[in-house]
Write a structure and sequence with these properties.
Largest sheet: 10 strands, mixed
Radius of gyration: 22 Å
Strand content: 15-25%
Shape: globular
Helix content: 25-40%
Distance between the termini: 49 Å
Bound molecules: L-homoserine
Number of strands: 16
Length: 395
């Protein structure tokens, strides 16, 4: 019997409990052994819970119990999740997490500690909710050099954009609905300002390159400035607007990464990804394009990825599965100013169109001209147009 502890009984933690209790013989068959929840750590009281005896408020109960070999960290946030994960790994317990903030910040160290202590640090649920993407990057696609990853990586913002621009709902009511469905972060600013997608992009970029990509180095913009006019004019030229996390590896090995709303061609597979669904388009040098699609947030989809990691950890007690992710030597990031994009521009400054290359006017509305530009470096665009227009980069 493999004994586990769940840290945090919120949306994901209660989903993990539910899945593990749903069909234990099926889980045991897949893990090669039965899996028993020995503890649930939470600071709140759960007096009505059918197994209230499992609850503890003291992490030491778990840490000092040698029977517990897998710790499921689904608390979110950096502390105490970081200290708890580190202590568990130092004791040779495997840690499974959905905590993207922690993986993006301390992933390099926690992966190394797992290796040094014959344990595992698994984080499939940290990107794309229930979508398998971490294991494919770390295992199935390893014959490829991954040179591009583009993803719709935040379920809340994709849900909001779909509700607002396809169903005419307001931003506030769409966000409230996303919160009530258990999609949004505790502080929804992390979703709508792009921070959550940024951390996920950093995790994907780190796995794609095998080198730690620091999320602080990824320019990040959220969805709050997108207007109905943007969506209307983008639609006129065959595009939709999506919040995209991108990482591209140039021939010099430099990583060009950004999280921002992008105009996505209606011909792209990413254009039809709506609601809470996420999708990650990966390009490998041998395989070409491959897309991963599914529910990017929510209790059971996210918990299903966590439980799959628990099963994998149970199959590999005291056997480290190598994760391709180590400290980068030197600066591997492309200077954002050197990155090249086409831009979609909305402006009341009539002269601007004359000063930018490759301009194609789409139309005018209430004194504003809307156009696209040809390819240009970000620093050149900002020098000419920064502060004079609303703009969205084209994917
Ligand atoms: N708030 C996140 C999202 C949860 O909406 O995608 C899943 O990481």
């Amino acid at each position: 019997m493999v004994k586990i502890a769940i840290l945090g009984y919120g949306t994901v933690g209660s989903g993990v409990y539910e899945i593990l209790k749903k069909n234990p013989p099926s889980i045991a068959k897949k893990a090669g052994d039965s899996i028993e929840i020995k503890y649930i750590l939470d600071i709140r009281e759960f007096d009505d819970h059918p197994e209230k005896h499992l609850f503890t408020k003291n992490f030491d109960d778990i840490l000092n119990d040698d029977e517990v070999s897998i710790v499921v960290e689904v608390m979110g946030g950096l502390e105490p999740a970081y200290s708890f994960s580190k202590s568990a790994l130092l004791k040779g317990k495997s840690v499974v997490t959905s905590n993207k903030e922690l993986v993006a910040t301390h992933g390099t160290e926690l992966i190394r500690l797992a290796k040094e202590h014959d344990a595992n640090y698994f984080f499939e649920a940290s990107v794309g909710g229930g979508i398998p993407i971490i294991r494919p990057l770390n295992q199935c696609l390893t014959a490829n050099e991954i040179d591009e990853v583009h993803g719709i990586l935040n379920g809340t913002t994709n849900f909001i954009l779909t509700k607002m621009f396809e169903e005419g709902a307001t931003f506030e009511s769409s966000l409230r609905e996303a919160q009530s469905l258990g999609y949004a972060e505790r502080n929804p600013e992390a979703d709508v300002e792009g921070h959550d997608a940024c951390r996920k992009t950093a995790i994907l970029a780190s796995l794609a390159t095998g080198k730690f990509v620091d999320y602080h180095d990824i320019p990040t913009e959220g969805i709050t400035k997108i207007s109905t006019a943007d969506v209307f004019f983008a639609g006129k030229i065959g595009y939709v607007i999506k919040l995209i996390g991108s990482a591209e590896v140039g021939p010099d090995g430099k990583v060009q990464a950004i999280v921002a709303p992008r105009l996505v061609s209606k011909d792209s597979q990413l254009a039809d990804v709506n609601g809470v669904f996420n999708a990650i388009l990966v390009h490998g040098d041998s395989l070409g394009d491959v897309m991963f699609y599914g529910r990017g947030a929510g209790k059971l989809p996210t918990a299903s990825a966590v439980v799959a990691d628990v099963i994998d950890a149970a199959k590999h007690i005291h056997i480290n599965k190598w994760v391709i992710w180590s400290e980068a030597e030197g600066d591997i990031m492309q200077n954002p100013g050197e990155c090249v994009y086409r831009y979609f521009v909305r402006t009341s400054n009539k002269a601007l169109a004359e000063n930018l290359p490759g301009v194609d006017v789409i139309g005018t509305l209430e004194g504003e001209t809307v156009f696209t530009t040809g390819e240009m470096k970000e620093k050149d665009f900002m020098q000419t147009a920064g502060g004079k227009c609303a703009y969205i980069r084209i994917l």
